Amino acid sequence: MGRIDEALERFSAGFNCAQSVLGPFVETGKEEGQRVLRLASSFGGGMRVGEVCGAVTGALMVIGSREGYYLPEDQTAKERCSKLTLQFMEEYSQRKGTLFCREILGYDVRDQAAAERHAATKGQKCGEAIRLAIELLAEMGIE
């Protein structure tokens, strides 16, 4: 199963967009993988307030896990991670037209009545956001 299919399967099973994008890049059966998914759980729904899309934040977590730095003096890794983060966000925004969950979904995620009115289209819109995030990671060579 490819990463996109796995991510969409995760989303269908109840994971949020950030967890769905991140999941195919971690070994979720291991304790560390489970911890990573727990960390991502607050990032769905644009951090639950419609801000930056969870698919984007999940992808940024993937970039950080692959290209990030853990030593403050590691300027090479710091610059590379920064460059990749900006590249991803610019390309995602250009292709999707926005980085914001509320704009992708077309409603304020905090408004329960609006969420109910848009329930029929949410899965499709989130699926497209997840697919794009993983496609961009692959295009950028993030494995």
**Which class of secondary structure composition applies to the elements?**
mainly alpha
Give the biggest beta sheet.
Answer: none
**Amount of beta strand:** under 5%
Distance between the termini: 15 Å
Number of helical segments with 4 or more residues: 9
User: What is the helix fraction of residues, given as a range?
Assistant: over 70%
Unreliable parts: none
User: What's the total number of strands?
Assistant: 0
Q: Which overall shape is indicated by the principal axes computed on the Cα atoms?
A: globular
As for the number of domains, it is 1
**Computed Rg:** 15 Å
The SSE order reads HHHHHHHHH
**Averaged pLDDT, please?**
96
